[in-house]
Amino acid sequence: MAQIVLQLPSPHHVDPAWRDTVQARLDALAKPVGSLGSLEPVLCDIAAIQGTAHPRIRRPFFLLFAADHGVAKDRPISRYGQHVTEEMVNHIASGRSVSTVLARSFDVPWRVYDVGMVSAPSHPDVRRSKVAAGTRDFTRGPAMTLDECAEAIRIGMQAVRDAHADGADLVVLGEMGIGNTTAASALSAWLLAVDVDLVVGTGTGIREQALAEKRLVVRTALSVWGEREPSFSAGDARWLAGLAHLGGLELASICGAILEAAAIGLPVLLDGVLVGACALWAERARPGVRDFLIAGHLSPEPAHALLLGELRKRPLLDLGLRVGEGSGALMAWPILRAGLDVLEGTAMFSERARSGRNVT
């Protein structure tokens, strides 16, 4: 195997004592103990990441990576053709997609990166970072070379560094690429060591015949890859090889973005199955990354619940969303912001007792 010079960063240290500190603070607020439900452990996680009893997020940043997939070129595994990637990227960059309408509504700045589209998007705000014009058909061999995969990871890492330099204190990640749920399913089956039927879903809404084709494609890709179960102590080269064979250029960039955010010490708000597969890859490659992850929502794609279970993350939303492109994570952002506001602004029982008012 060729030796690729790519240093995967290790996650920033997290002091778990801050979780206990903030949980005690939550318990002392003028509300029933535990009444914020699954939001409470997320607030504790952010406190541990930031190392403070008063966690705040003031500037979330939305980063979206786009690429095409060779396996989708001549197969009915998606409801849409590859030309839709370009169309959607132009909508996203112009603020007229579901994701960027949400981002604008919540005052979240966004950046869009072309890391591997077949065509060149026309919108001037799309950042040209193309590694290749799409991946290869991974039923015949690796989707990417090791160099291409490494370069896509570097682009994701740099995107987070740039956002952080512009004040980002939380990263929201999204993707666009026709056929990418097929790649995510293959990655999930490998990382989770489960049967293909447990991880392949309908994606953009394909019918049963196309779903059968999609399962066959994923099985074939895994067979060609040949390593049914990942070796968790295999080192960077093996993790890179698996991602290069089964993934996509935009997925590799998301993997890099997650690794870099964890290294800097930024929380990452996860979207659906695609970002979830990247998150588990990052956690496998660098254990401890999961401390920086927040599950925005639960996708109906069958792999997503398995991925979140492996990461030990509970989603903030479960609305049956399957838009992709970061939209589920963006919908979860105001919930997270509201939780932080409640933590900071709600009185303590002791304060109300001192004021002479009754608590009901």
Overview of this protein structure:
Keywords: Cobalamin biosynthesis, Glycosyltransferase, Transferase. The protein has 13 helices and 6 strands. With 360 residues, it is of the alpha/beta class. Strands 3-2-1-4-5-6 form a 6-stranded parallel beta sheet, with helices on both faces. Strand 5 (268-270), helix 10 (273-285) and strand 6 form a beta-alpha-beta unit. Helix 6 (180-192) crosses helix 11 (302-311) and helix 9 (249-264) packs across helix 10 (273-285).
Salient structural properties:
single chain; 360 residues; alpha/beta; 6-stranded parallel β-sheet; 13 helices; 6 strands; globular
What is the succession of H and E elements? HHEHHEEHEHHHHEHEHHH
Unreliable segments of 5+ consecutive residues = 355-360
Enumerate the strands of the largest sheet in spatial order, edge to edge or round the barrel: 3-2-1-4-5-6
Number of helices: 13
Number of strands: 6
Helix content: 40-55%
Kindly report how far apart the N and C termini lie. 67 Å
What is the overall shape? Answer: globular
Largest sheet: 6 strands, parallel
Beta-strand portion reads 5-15%
Computed over alpha carbons, the radius of gyration is 20 Å
Main structural class: alpha/beta
Chain-averaged pLDDT: 91
Summary, kept brief:
Belongs to the CobT family. The protein is α/β, with parallel strands linked by helices and 360 residues long. The chain has helices spanning 17-28, 39-50, 83-94, 98-105, 146-165, 180-192, 208-225, 236-246, 249-264, 273-285, 302-311, 327-345, 349-355, and strands spanning 60-67, 110-116, 126-128, 170-176, 268-270, 293-295.
